[in-house]
Design brief:
mainly alpha, 4 helices, elongated, single chain
Length: 140
């Protein structure tokens, strides 16, 4: 092979690589990317809100069960139990909504893991709130 052909082949190789890389780049542009750690999507926002609301429902229900009456505040008697049930039901609804509308699986950044946590905490808060409500009806 002569030096002239070697230089011509070396000069055209990058252009051939660009020509072959263009279809691969177009294919990669069509594929959706998973959310990064710092992205905060609507799914993550709904799952976080539902999880925090479910956690609040559990906390208020536990306080309503341990302090049935005699203290000022929302976490006693019927009011605390009712608040725990309502907050738990809202957390369940938010968790179910995010879980139903999430595009990918766990780890894709769509809030599916948080939705499962919101469902679980909402269920626990609702059940504990109902138990506190039945206790407050029996004693009062």
């Amino acid at each position: 092979m002569s030096a002239r052909r070697l230089f011509a082949a070396a000069a055209t190789a990058p252009f051939a690589g660009l020509g072959l890389a263009a279809p691969a780049a177009a294919h990669a542009a069509v594929q959706p990317l998973a959310a990064t750690v710092t992205d905060f999507s609507i799914g993550r926002l709904g799952a976080t809100t539902g999880g925090l609301l479910g956690l609040a429902a559990v906390a208020v229900a536990v306080l309503a069960m341990t302090r049935p009456a005699g203290r000022l505040g929302i976490a006693h008697g019927r009011l605390g139990a009712t608040a725990a049930v309502v907050a738990g039901l809202i957390a369940i609804a938010l968790g179910a909504l995010v879980a139903a509308t999430a595009d990918g699986g766990l780890g894709t950044g769509n809030g599916l893991g948080g939705a499962y946590v919101a469902l679980l905490l909402g269920l626990i808060g609702t059940l504990l709130g109902r138990r506190a409500l039945s206790r407050s009806r029996r004693t009062g």
